[in-house]
C-alpha cells in the first residue's frame, strides 16, 4: 500500500500516479535539472508564484544544458 502522497494543485496524487506521469515526460533529464536549479536559486514560495513563462524559461535553459 502506497502511503506517500503529493499535494498537487490542491488534489492529492499518489506517489505511484505521480511517477507514472513523470515517466510519460519526454526529457526527464531537463526536467530534473530545471527543478534542481529552481530549488537552488529560489524559495518554495517564490517557485509557487512563478508564472508559466518564467517556468518555461528555466526549463528551456535546462533543455539546452542537457543537450550538450
Spell out the key features of this protein.
68 residues, globular
Short recap of the structure:
By secondary structure, the chain is mainly alpha-helical. The chain has helices at 15-23, 28-41, 44-49, 52-67; strands at 5-8, 11-14.
- The percentage of residues in β strands lies in 5-15%
Strand order of the largest sheet: 1-2
For the termini, the CA-CA separation is: 40 Å
Name the shape in a single word: globular
Explain the overall architecture.
- Helix 2 packs across helix 4.
- The protein is built from 4 helices and 2 strands; from the N terminus they run E-E-H-H-H-H.
- It is globular.
- A two-stranded antiparallel sheet has the order 1-2.
- The longest helix has 16 residues, at 52-67.
- With 68 residues, the chain is mainly α.
- The model has no long low-confidence stretch (mean pLDDT 85).
- The N and C termini lie far apart (40 Å).
Task: Summarize the helices and strands and which ones pair or pack.
Blueprint: E1 5-8, E2 11-14, H1 15-23, H2 28-41, H3 44-49, H4 52-67
Antiparallel strand pairs: 1-2
Amino acid at each position: 500500500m502506497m502511503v506517500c502522497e503529493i499535494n498537487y494543485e490542491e488534489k492529492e496524487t499518489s506517489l505511484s500516479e505521480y511517477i507514472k506521469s513523470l515517466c510519460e515526460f519526454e526529457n526527464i533529464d531537463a526536467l530534473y535539472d530545471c527543478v534542481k536549479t529552481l530549488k537552488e536559486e529560489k524559495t518554495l514560495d517564490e517557485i509557487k508564484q512563478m508564472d508559466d513563462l518564467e517556468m518555461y524559461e528555466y526549463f528551456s535553459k535546462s533543455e539546452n544544458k542537457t543537450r550538450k
